[in-house]
Description:
This protein is α/β, with parallel strands linked by helices. It has helices spanning 12-24, 35-44, 61-70, 86-94, 107-118, 122-126, 132-135, 143-156, 172-182, 200-208, 225-228, 247-256, 282-287, 293-299, 316-326, 336-344, 350-364, 377-380, 409-423, 428-435, 439-448, and strands spanning 4-8, 28-32, 49-53, 76-81, 99-102, 162-165, 190-194, 232-237, 258-259, 268-269, 272-278, 302-305, 333-334, 369-370.
Amino acid sequence: MSPHVLLVDDEPRFRALYAQVLRAAGFVISEAADVEEALARLGAEPVDMVVSDVRMPGASGIDLLELVRARGDEVAFLLVTAWTDVRDAVAALKLGAVDYLSKPVDLDELVACVQDTLGVSSEAALADDPPAALKGDIIAVSEVMRGVLRDAWRFARSDVNVLLRGESGTGKELMASFVHRASERAGGPFVAVNCAALPPTLLESELFGHERGAFTGATTARKGRFREAAGGVLFLDEIGDMPLDMQPVLLRALEQRTIRPVGASGDVRVDFRLVAATNSDLEALVAAGRFRADLYYRLNVIALDIPPLRERADDILPLARHLLAASDGPSKRIGSAAARLLQSYEWPGNVRELANAMKRARLLSRTDVILPESLPPTVQRARSTTPAPAPAPGSHEPTGGTPEPVETLERTEIASLRRALEATGGNRTHAAELLGISRRGLLKKLKRFGLQGDPP
Length: 456
């Protein structure tokens, strides 16, 4: 397993810069914004080396080093500062720091220092990719996604909490499921709960269970999701939407590994690993008083940022082909013109939007080639500035003398309308949804093209 480096700095831009170069060198990275958060991480997860700023609001990097040494932890320390104070350097070295770098930090020197201290080469650190069989439906061709998957693979084999951050539709639940499959808890259950999908009055009972008669309608006892996840992984999606009054109860469960079902007189011990996900900025919610800081630190032991699809362009076509192959029906392939549109579009809805687009394309396509006309209107309006992508392995993309079928715009639109109506059994509301237009817009088009009757 690759060495784990903890970065401590109150300035996110420096943490991000150091994390980028150290991850590229193959190290597992976690971050802390201050001494309090750093101590929490050091107490919750195995860390091989700390790279800490010296001057931070509140306690300093040297204070952190003293506190860590006082509790008998001999983790390696590298201190960084913009202040050229020789006394700080001497104090740090006396306490056992391995070195002391001044800002602006030479990034090559930073990587070399970490490698020398931990006795590893970048090649050795990078040789730690997950087996293909564990990836499931996760497609990671792009370098950024491969890095995320590599980090997830390393973190999965510990038992600490994981926080997945990313926009809606980026595949956070897929990543949570991967962490479960790759962990020592793979033989246990994977239990998923969407905190935003449940009313606050039901969330406590859903998570912690209830006794019979605990409230009106509780005719039988219920175990709750924490106990259902015994020996496995509990995935709490949209954790940022958890009501403020529920957060102390969750914090207690994480700290003490006990829960109290609604209406029960005693506590119940629980054995689980927590993976949480959010599309919110939890730090901003903490600052606004809408999310507890202590719960945030407890959740944020390991954080993985799932990139949006627009930042992993190399994954778009492999993902589209995977989604197309996984859906029911005869085999179809993506034509070059459609492929260019898929790559040009921004995908604000991320993988979820791409999956829906491929379902739509399969339904509307009349041939074994997905053409632009079968893609959603929003995608069709994308303008490509990229060259045609290479065909998928084993495909027979036309090259030169056999062009894809070309139809007039009117005929194409009529054909799309007919296929949408056929696919939905004539239900105009559903057909409009399938085409990505309003019901009123659909009715106007039907009238314009004389398609008022039932579809043939």
